[in-house]
Design a protein that fits this description.
215 residues, alpha+beta, 6 strands
């Protein structure tokens, strides 16, 4: 019987290193099939909680937030695209020109967890934003993505029109911030082991094997 490890994957759907980390973690688990199984829970983190509804130009945003020059940003984009491609994920940098608020996407993910479709929705949201250049704060985009993974369209639309799960998502965000999580992805295994960042598959594989061996 494989050892089941609880994974709290703290991340944002507009964070490129989060999908890189997720793909690497999943591939590590595949390598350990029969030894390790993952009980995955996606926890909310907003990179830009104050972002206006219309979003902001990516270049402008990176310069303001990190002081990145256009040349540095371009190098980073190329590195991210290469890491993604190696893991089988497509970053279409030419389609993605803006950064958006992701709070409603996190409310949808909270609901999807109750429906047993959270991992599918998380992957679909990453694809919608990074591969297809769609706006993850747009309710129509979110409803379409929900439908894609088999969630009820009418319920998704009603949820987004209300403030359902807003308090629950904020509480979870605060919990992780208060516990020292200030950058993502943050991968918490069995509520006590922390791995930060989009690590290589081998790093996750080694960590999963060691933690599983501890029982």
């Amino acid at each position: 019987m494989p050892t089941t490890l609880k994974i709290d994957f703290v991340s944002d759907v507009s964070c490129p290193w989060c999908i890189i980390g997720l793909k690497a973690l999943e591939q590590a688990a595949d390598r350990l099939q029969g030894e390790v199984a993952l009980d995955l829970h996606f926890q909310p983190f907003e990179l830009n909680p104050q972002m206006a509804p219309e979003g902001q130009d990516i270049g402008e945003h990176l310069q303001e937030k990190y002081g990145a020059t256009p040349e540095q940003s371009q190098k980073n984009r190329e590195a991210i695209a290469a890491r993604g491609a190696a893991l089988g994920f497509t970053f279409s940098m030419d389609k993605r020109s803006r950064i958006y608020n992701t709070f409603d996407a996190h409310r949808l993910l909270h609901w999807a967890e109750e429906k047993g479709l959270q991992p599918q929705l998380k992957h679909a949201l990453f694809t919608a934003y990074f591969s297809d250049g769609q706006n993850p704060s747009d309710h129509e985009v979110l409803v379409n993505v929900a439908e894609e993974v088999g969630l009820d369209v009418a319920e998704a639309r009603a949820l987004l029109a209300s403030d359902r799960y807003a308090d629950a998502v904020r509480e979870r965000e605060q919990f992780y911030l208060q516990n020292g999580i200030h950058s993502v992805p943050a991968i918490i295994i069995n509520e006590r082991h922390l791995i930060q960042g989009g690590q290589p598959v081998e790093v996750f594989e080694q960590a999963l094997r060691q933690i599983a061996a501890q029982g």
